[in-house]
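#struct-help
A.M.: can someone run this one for me? Single chain, 100 residues.
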Amino acid sequence: LPGAHCVLDVSAAATAAAAAAGMRATNQQLASRQAEVVACVSQELFCSPEIIRQGPMELWQPGSSSWAGAHFVLTRAGFLHWFASIDDVAPLEPPLNLCR
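D.P.: on it. Structure tokens below:
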């Protein structure tokens, strides 16, 4: 009955392909939702009462050996966050803890 195994293999492959397509769709939806949430949270950072100072500063770029403009935020907890601009809410690097 080698033919029976072939039918089962095709059926299993079709089931696996359908499951994979469903997972891809779910992954895209979750990634989109997470991006929206991160954008909202980061935008709230710029108007948080925990901010001591914020504004434009220059950030040293070791790869190009040059300075680049960035938007910096200093919080009461002593963390210095930096972003490419006030409109780009993705942090450039992990925050720097100035309280150490």
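A.M.: thanks! The mean pLDDT is 83.
D.P.: also worth noting: The two ends are 71 Å apart (CA to CA).
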